[in-house]
């Protein structure tokens, strides 16, 4: 019986785990145009803070290594919750046609 248990554990580790895609939905959400020629590597919800004037303030901080390039693009925004759906990645190089 111990041999069976040892064989099943490695098999379970090989099963792929699929995460739900990160989205921003709701009545107040404004969908923005997805950028052309963009290679998306990550997406996340960026949480802002409501100001005294009832608008949203977002703090951005990013660290890059020398020579590293990265773009953030907002593709959806909810002004009621101060949340933005951000995609991270880079634009495709289309200069070599």
TrEMBL record:
The lineage of its organism: Bacteria, Pseudomonadati, Pseudomonadota, Gammaproteobacteria, Thiotrichales. This is Uncharacterized protein. It comes from the Bacteria.
């Amino acid at each position: 019986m111990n041999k069976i248990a040892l064989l099943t554990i490695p098999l379970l580790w090989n099963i792929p785990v699929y995460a739900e895609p990160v989205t921003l939905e709701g009545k107040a959400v404004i969908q923005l145009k997805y950028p052309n020629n963009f290679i998306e590597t990550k997406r996340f919800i960026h949480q802002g803070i409501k100001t005294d004037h009832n608008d949203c303030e977002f703090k951005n901080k990013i660290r890059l290594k020398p020579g590293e390039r990265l773009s953030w693009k907002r593709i959806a925004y909810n002004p009621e919750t101060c949340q933005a759906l951000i995609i991270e990645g880079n634009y495709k190089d289309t200069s070599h046609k």
